[in-house]
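I had to read the description of the data format several times before I understood it. In essence, backbone conformation is discretised, so a fold becomes a row of integers matching the chain in length. I therefore recommend that a typical entry be quoted early in the introduction. For illustration, here is how one protein appears when written out as sequence plus structure tokens.

***
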Amino acid sequence: MLTFIVKRLVSGILLLVLVTSGTFFLAHTAVGDPTAGLLGNSATPAQQAALRAQIGYDRPLLAQFWDWLTHAATGDFGTSWRNFQPVGEQIALRVPVTLSVVVAATLLAAILGVLVGVVCGLRPGGVVDRVLKLASVVLFALPGFWVSLVLVTWFAIQLQWFPAVGYVSPDQSVVGWLRSIALPSISLSLGAIVMIAEQLRNGFLQVANQDFVRTLRARGLSSRRVTTHVLRNASPSALTVLALMFVGLLGGAVVVEIVFNLPGIGSLTQSASQIGDIPVLLGLTAVTVVFVVIVNFLLDLVLGWVNPKVRDR
């Protein structure tokens, strides 16, 4: 187990360095001179030169990269080029908002996806199974922002069950916090529910036809115990999809946060991209990769617990 943890940590660090390095050079290539976006079209050449010197953009690119990398290794992502506030502090204020929505959406997807997947696996071709197939076509054909707007129109404007926009911190009101993240979480989770349910259904049907399942039934085990064995053997693929969906939901949070006016890392990414605020983009990339590494590490632990063969490998 110790060797496994060390290998995962080393691979996670390498992934973090590679992704942030690629983002650094790609961002500098795409943005070019950021002073025009930061100061506006009315800025004079002298003002642009002064800003380049202030943010260190007049230095060689490799020197800028090494300076950022050495500081980022200590948790210092520098200062924003837009407001000259520490990047780490800005991200820390917005991460709880995004994580609230993404974690809630992941939980919804896991619970409902497993329930629907098991029902479809037990009764293939039934009503729930046919609804699942229809939902998979409809949800993947519809844009995510359109689904979000429909939810706002129905449940926020017409029924007034939830607020249409805004975010309430759990420190202020737990009920208000749950109401503020309800619609964004539902909007994010719909596609994930369908994907997890389909993956679990297919795995369930595949495992249910194997010889050891027929042996369990022949030994007189109850249907509930047989279903438990089948579900345990079919769950690894669904767990993998769930982990991938968590990472995907982090990216999908950009659209949802814009529609629901949430002050999360998605809206921060959009604003930083528009003006070429590279330090903020790099900090967001590093934080996102850390989340990916943690999720993959936890996934490996859960898979090892569910399937001993994975643990042996």
